[in-house]
Amino acid sequence: MSQLTYREAVRHALAEELTRDPNVVVMGEEVGQFQGAYKVTQGLLEKFGPKRVADTPISEAGFIGMGIGASMLGVRPVMELMFWSFYSVAFDQILNNAANVRYMSGGQINCPIVIRGPANGGTNVGATHSHTPENILAAHPGVKVVVPSTPYDAKGLLKSAIRDNDPVFFLENTVLYGEKGEVPDEEYLIPLGKADVKREGKDLTIVTYGRPVIQSLVAAELLAKEHDISVEVVDLRTIRPLDIDTVLASVRKTHRVLVVEEQKPFCGVGAQLTYMIQAEAFDDLDAPIGRLCTIDAPAIYSPPVEAEQLPNPQRILKAALALLD
Amino acid sequence: MSKKPSATIEQKPNASSTSHGQAPINAALTQAQKIELFSQMVRIRRFEERSHRAYTGKNAAGGPNIGGFLHLYNGQEAIAVGCCSLMGKHDHVITAYRDHGHAIAVGMDTKALMAELYGKVTGCSKGKGGSMHFFSPERNYWGGHGIVGGQIPLGVGLAYGVKYKGHKGSAMAFMGDGAVNQGAVHEAYNLAALWNLPCIFVIENNGYSMGTSQARSSAGDLAKRAEGYGMAWGVCEGHDVYEVRATMDKFLNIAREECKPAVVEIRTYRYRGHSVADPDNTYRTKTEVEDYRRTKDPIQVFQAALIAEGVLSSESAEKIDEAARAEAEAAADFADASPYPTPEDIQKDVYWESDNPDQRTSQGRLFFN
């Protein structure tokens, strides 16, 4: 085991897959010479050369579309969006072309492309740079959506994503890039669509993914110490495919659920989750399902207030206590 | 709109084929190859006319044979046929929604194409794509795309793939004149030029976008915009299959040999409305359509050239036309007799993984019903 940052874990996954498969290429804005806007791809250009690690112009619709076209011919592009927020200028390429081309061709084509980059708030960059589009992406059949919360998960899931034969959208988090965690020295893969129980408990299940996993674990610790409440934290890790079975097993154990997400509430991932939980485990519930989201407004700039707009340990703690009242 | 077949092969065109027949790429054609080019153009015309009749007619149950939109290629046949006739093993094609002509030109079976229009499971996309979404990857034909200009970055990606794999080949990315003002097209131009990708951007300029003329929608010359990206460009007339081939051959060779992109504007005309839903009575005159058909019909022009060359006779042209009509009729019969997909088919061909369950590596639910 080594202690790696989330950033390093992603980088190691890229380097290992570039080494393993000559069809893998890394492309995006500033991924090469600049060493990555968030230094995720640092050193890769020197190691693998400009054919495998390519700087693109600021031209998301163009280069994402190019990657999709190349993937139809069997190249396996891993495209970096400097921020997932910029998906909006490549929306047609991502969600008309990558998501639909297999279906419209009657299954003759597949697009083994990965689009990755950070998707989060909490860095005081305002509404345009703080989108969390996992719900919008996952609403499109044909795509897979991954949101890892730890260095270990990020590495194992990204390697699986790169080997996947369908388009995979991989949403990272700039706030987590510097967070450290244990990562095995030997190679490993984590299958997409497998949730992970990050903390076991018996009184309440928190279902979450991405950075709110880390915040929920902090809240769970406080709830245990200060309120003698035992919280189970289920990290979805992948939004689509969705490991609802692990969620339902936890609900059947604790009988109370709080969904926590760094999403706006309307039509968010949590809306789908709460629907599925009530539909499939209604008799196991002792209380209405709770939901804690980002407060429903565009991302505010003001630094101390943005921290309150997003999920945070104190907001999670309050929501959990309200549910257990 | 008349249901009468509109190819007037008997008429004599005013515009004859030009010296382009002497271009090396055309001089090298055998008589059989020339007849094949002619035959493909006629087959596209008859296919389109038959599909139009199917669209406006009713099936045995009294319902429509074909749903949605139908964008016909009549008048533009020499472009798809001329360009696709130049394809080698590593040359690829992608186009927009007016995609029937290219599909026939790359060799797709008209039965599967017509069945796709009818929404049948025997269609080239199993009834899942429809008129705008024909694909045949084994023939290097990558669709068939519905969003104006959205296919152009994919075309650059095909060219990138050709170059990445070290093949000597190209991608021809077709679009209409209405696509040239889309941002994605300009982003694609820049990438192709910046990275020296073997992509030929082919603008099939039929003059009207949907119903807004070039003069009312585009500033400046269309192909000349390539200069802003340091790309080569050319313009040619699309009614003469020899000219299309001679022009495209030049740029394709540069793409294959030097990995350089280009923009080629091919001036053409469509005989039908933008789609069958377009009554075609608001933005151009009947006289204009008829003038073009009388003087520049690509089938008539090529027929006259081949007769002058002694390659074709009026009788053999008539036989080719009869065979094309019979083929289109057989395609319609096949489509009519074919079954629809079943509701169980709706969730097939969504994910590679769910279609190949023995090779699935992910877990969890892929579908949510």
What would you say this structure looks like, in words?
- The complex is a heterodimer of chains A (325) and B (369).
- Chain A has two domains: 182 residues, 3-Layer(aba) Sandwich (Rossmann fold), CATH 3.40.50; 129 residues, Rossmann fold.
- Chain A is of the alpha/beta class.
- Chain A starts with a strand and ends with a helix.
- Helices cover 38% and strands 18% of the residues of chain A.
- Chain B has 369 residues and is α/β, with parallel strands linked by helices.
- In chain B, 41% of the residues lie in helices and 9% in strands.
- In chain B, helix 9 links the parallel strand 5 and strand 6.
- In chain B, helix 3 runs parallel beside helix 9, helix 5 packs across helix 12 and helix 6 runs parallel beside helix 7.
- The longest helix of chain B has 26 residues.
- Chain B is globular.
